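FORM 7B - TANDEM STRUCTURE REPORT

SECTION 1: FIRST PROTEIN
SEQUENCE AND TOKENS:
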Amino acid sequence: MKEDSSGRNMTVGSPAGHILAFSLPLLAGSFFQQLYNMVDSWVVGNYVSDAALAAVGTGFPVMTLFNSLFIGLSTGGTVVIAQYYGAGKKEGVRGAVDTIYAAFLRFILPVTLAAVVLVRPILLVLRVDQAAYQDTWMYLTVVSAGLVGTIGYNLNAGILNGLGNSRTTLLFLAIAAVMNIVLDFVFVLAFRWGVFGVALATILAQAFSWLYGLWYINHHYPDIAIHPLQAKLDMELFKKIFGIGLPAGLQMSLVSIGTMTALSKINTYGKAFAAGFNVGNKLDSLAFLPIQSISSAVTAFVGQNMGANLEDRANQGTRAATAAAVVWTLITTVVLLLWGDVFSAFFTPDEPVVEASVIYLNCVMPPYALFSALFVLNAAMRGAGESVFPMVNVVASLILVRVPCMYFLANHFGPQAMYWGYGIGWVVGCGAAIWYYRSGKWKHRGSLAK
């Protein structure tokens, strides 16, 4: 395989240094991704309506649900590719890339059609406010029809992350972010297309980023050049990828369902409260970007080192990453608790929406460090090929505990208290993740590169 200068062998050198160097491009890329998501919200919140702002916010967990199968495939691909790369078995890398794209071609059309068809039934389940219904339907229908670009980008990123190359995914996202922002202003401010324009800008930018990613991989990594129509499905490799990716995908699907169940309750309090949830969620997601980047780095780091049978080194990196994630979260918690209203006002001039956003932040941010630790530990275990426990843990804590607690608190103490259900779920999930990680049971699969 031709080595790209931005690839990274993480089986030698400082574990903390590798994780930091790998995380920074991912962080910048995630910032670009959040930037154009925030611009979507800012444009519709300031130039369309609060109903449009609520529509964009409601669309996020629904799209995560539709994307989750392929994001799971991307996660499984990252782990398997990282382990083969760490073990020095480049033929395994080649086979994994082919298998990922062969599966993509088989499933993308039915998943896209199902997503478009399911939009209206999902909106009924979510009890979307009538004032926001048409905008939400339009946004979800257009973005669902363009799933191929979003999913294709995630697959390319998963392949490169497994090779230790996180800088190139930054380039892909930077291109998508700039294109999305420019098209937002053109379609919404110049053409007056409203929510349709925001959705169209999103799918066009993501499709371009995916196609550029294909060209980049084929140009810089000729030994794993991707020719989708010629890709062959290796069933043994598919079982390894699917064994890791299916639990990860199911986890994301079920968490999205849990979020939509919570949204069903949130939407009953009116469009201002729902829009406030969207704004608060944007801000906490922005604060969480470094944790996501660290987690992705840990998955690749642990994958490469487990592939090379360096378990102690995998442990060292995981401990350093968890500590860094907790410290960062504590800092951002203080910032958002002190100035949450200032940041919220950036998205909308509507005072009730700002107030609803501050309610969300005041409840969610204090226990956020628990979620960051949970997230990093689950990512480390997934990098070792243990994907079932993270799925069970997240589903139990974020759905079976959090959602009922939110409904109970809302019904007995009002909507201002419902978001404390987040922290209750995180206490359970973080405790379980620490216990399982310390037990060492997550190492039972050993190296997958055999």
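SECTION 2: SECOND PROTEIN
SEQUENCE AND TOKENS:
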Amino acid sequence: MENTKKKKKMSLTTVILLALVLGAVTGALLYSFASGSAGVQKYVVNGVFYVLGQGFIRLMQMLVIPLVFCSLVCGTAQIGGTKSFGRIGGGIIGLYLLTTTLALTLALFFSRLTKPGVGLNLSAIQMSTEKLQTVDRSSIPDTLLNIIPKNVFESMANGDMLPIIVFALIVGVIIGKLGDKVQTVSNFFSQFNDIMMEMTMMVMKVAPIGVFCLIAKTFATVGARAMAPLLKYLLTVLLVLVIQVLVVYMTILWTGARVSPFRFLKKFFPVMLFAFSTDSSNATIPLNIETMEKDIGVSRDVASFTIPLGATINMDGTAIMQGVAVVFISQAYGIPLRPIDYVTVILTAVIASIGTAGIPTVGLVMLTMVLSSVGLPIEGISLIMGVDRIVDMCRTAVNITGDAVCTTVVAKHNGQFDKSIFLSDTRREEPNGSHPDNAETDIVDTMAEEFEETDKKA
């Protein structure tokens, strides 16, 4: 009986999606039949919906600074303190930062082309403005200088994220350098980071209420026309994710390791599928390492260092979501972004990816930080939260694929790559003793063989 009850219990994701649908329907009905009722607008739309929705937004804001600070300190300390950090460490981190920057650039570029937020006028919706007032939209030299905090506590109080990030990176590097001498401080940040992770999970449990109220208020104000821009946002994110894998990653793999992208995708596909289903980069680490060693041909010593590191600092799929979301929300609220704002988004998202936990929902919390860095209202997150599960599963698969591609390139350049294993047709057995279905990969096999013939000639 207990197992039956557990199976029937809806997941948090399902509840959030249901809250999104119910909120949209409720808001659309209020827009159609009660938009002229002063009582409904005052006590329901701008009363209950506003208070509960803004309460959830404030909970999200409460998490951002301590979560980002502790995550960055812990992540940087781990990188700076590892003995493996040398030529391989420097190379892999450089590649991770490069792919994340490319992912963000692609996201901003394509979202400017598709214009997902155009046609959705949310400027009439009341929003919290304290963040808009604190953002300094200055020149590039001033922006660079403002990255250095004059007073880190003042930066925390004002929500200036870039100075906080820089200070956290410095603290993390020093902790990693001093090692056992500051073990107490290191343990404090590690344990406090665990607390913030648990707090994030607690806040997400009330997300259905917040999503319902925020979406209901939005649709009660603008009507059902919000659905088309939301669909355009979803398709834009998925498009850029596909481009990141098939164009960016495969180009890096071919130019950096001179191996067949088709064979790589065929061998790595089970890991992508596992990441998609679990929606967690961390949960995929063991399978990723095993696949890199036994199927791809990367030395286990390299994979056991670069793959967990990638799950910590390489969040290309998450960066893509954040880039598209920034443009979507700016267009929806009618707040134009200047070139310096795009630079700020890239800097903030790339640097903040260091130490971000590879677990579901954290990307949304990090998005609040990116939005705040350019003065955009974080209420816009409510629109994309309902579809974020679909996006999150896809971007997790992209995240771990980026880790594997960069690992392969670095291993090849450091003599830690066995190409005979990569070219072998023997396949690793699945836990149940079965093998991947050969019929599903016949076309990919043929393409891989043709590509390898070209590789040999080159």
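SECTION 3: OBSERVATIONS ON SECOND PROTEIN
The two ends are 63 Å apart (CA to CA).
The CA atoms of residues 146 and 345 lie 15 Å apart.

SECTION 4: SIGNATURE
Preparer initials: ____
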